[in-house]
Amino acid sequence: MGMAVSIDIRDEAADAGRLAAAVGEVVDWLRWVDATFSTYDEASQVRRIDRAELTVGDAAPEVAEILALGERYRIDTGGYFDVRAGGPLDPSGVVKGWSVERASELLLAAGFPDHAVNAGGDVRLRGAPAPGRRWRVGVAHPHVRDGLAAVVQMGDGAVATSGTAERGPHVVDPHTGRPALELASVTVVGASLVAADAYATAALAMGLAALPWLDRLAGQEAYVVDAAGDSWWTAGFPLADPDGS
Length: 245
Prior knowledge:
The protein has helices spanning about 15-35, 45-50, 60-75, 90-110, 195-205, 210-215; strands spanning about 5-10, 115-120, 120-125, 135-140, 150-155, 155-165, 185-190, 220-225, 230-235. The chain is of the alpha+beta class.
C-alpha cells in the first residue's frame, strides 16, 4: 500500500511462538491485500480490471466487496468519496481501512485483545495499552513539521486522518476535478476504520462545507485543521486530557 504498517500488541504473558504466528498471519494478509489491490503494481487485479483485462466477476471475491463499499461511501458522501475521483480506478481509500480492520480481527481471534494496528497514521485500536489506561494517538500537524495538531485518547475504535502533512494536496474534489485546498487535515474517529477513513477523505474533498456535514455525521467525531491553520472539532471528539492521564 506504499506505507509502513506497525503492530503494537500488549500482552506481557504472551508465548513467543504464538505471538510470532499471529503477527505472521497479519503480515501475510497485508501482503496479499497489497498484491491484489495495489495501484502501483501493473500485475495487481485492480490494475488489470482498470485496463479491462480482468472482470470483477473473475477477480477475487474481496474485489467485489471493496468496490461495493466504495459505491456505498460514494452515495453516503454525495459523491465526494469516489474510487475514480482521480480518473483511474483507485480503491485505496477503502482498502486501507478494510484491510487493517481484518488484521485487527485476526489478532483478536488469535487471543490478543489489546492491540493497535497503524497503517500510515490510520489506526485501529482494541482493548487497552495497560490496565486502567486508554490508547493515545497523535494527529500530525499539517503545517508544523514533526508537530502534533491534537492527541486522541480512547479505547476500542478507529482513528483516520486525511490531509496534506505527508503527501501534499493529493485529494481531488470529484465534482470539480481540482485539488481540495480549503482544509489541510481532517481526522475522523469512530467504530470502524473503513468508515472513518472514507469520511475523512470525503470531508477533505468537501472543503469548508464539510464542517456542518461532519457535525451531523452519526457515530463519528472529527477534528479539522484548515488551510490557514485554524482548528475546529465536534463536541464529542476524544481529545487527550490536559494532564496526560
